[in-house]
Automatic annotation (TrEMBL):
DNA-binding region coordinates: 35-54
UniProt xrefs under Pfam families: TetR_C_8, TetR_N
Full protein name: TetR/AcrR family transcriptional regulator C-terminal domain-containing protein
Keyword hit for DNA-binding: yes
Keywords tagged on the record: DNA-binding
Length: 183
């Protein structure tokens, strides 16, 4: 049994090294120009080890994004937003998660823009908003997309700023925009 636990630790460590390597490389150059050779050299691992887990750098990025979106989805689900219309705890949790993963999120947002990671975050927030509404109309669906797109846009701006405002300030700002008290 110890071998399986040890293997899991090695696999987690390898995946972490690859994630960190990809993050550093995406901060240095366009994703399209990153090769498997670049990643394994940066992570200081064997090429065969890379291919034991991923098909190519696109697969690596896709799996990192999928894992992060799943983590994000679970964090939000833990708040049990059903039956309440208060997005404040969801926003606070989302901002905490983004801050904890700032470097990789910044790289993913820059590397794929709204078509990739940002679009996936929009979908999660949109679903969260719709779960809060017991009766859904066509307007609810459009409003959910509008709100989720705006929230993710503000979060993307915040996460990519060289000198971002404090996280409690961005949560308060998003909340003011959502409640119409910005002006």
């Amino acid at each position: 049994m110890t071998g399986a636990v040890q293997e899991d630790k090695r696999i987690r460590r390898t995946k972490k090294l690859l994630r960190q390597a990809l993050t550093r490389l995406m901060q240095q150059k366009d994703f399209q120009s990153i090769t498997v050779t670049d990643v394994v050299r940066e992570a200081d691992i064997n090429r065969g080890t890379f291919y034991a887990h991923y098909r190519d750098v696109y697969d690596l990025r896709e799996k990192i994004e999928a894992e992060m979106i799943e983590d994000f989805r679970e964090l939000i689900a833990d708040l049990h937003p059903s039956g309440t219309s208060n997005l404040q705890p969801v926003l606070a949790r989302a901002v905490d998660y983004l801050e904890e993963n700032r470097e990789i999120v910044r790289a993913l947002v820059r590397g794929t823009g709204v078509e990739g990671f940002g679009r996936k975050m929009i979908t999660v927030l949109e679903e969260c908003h719709l779960e809060m509404r017991p009766f859904r109309s066509v307007e609810d669906a459009y409003a959910a997309r509008f709100l989720a797109t705006g929230i993710v846009g503000m979060m993307e701006k915040w996460i990519t700023e060289p000198q971002p405002i404090l996280k409690n300030e961005i949560v308060a700002l998003i909340n003011r925009v959502l409640t119409g008290n910005l002006i």
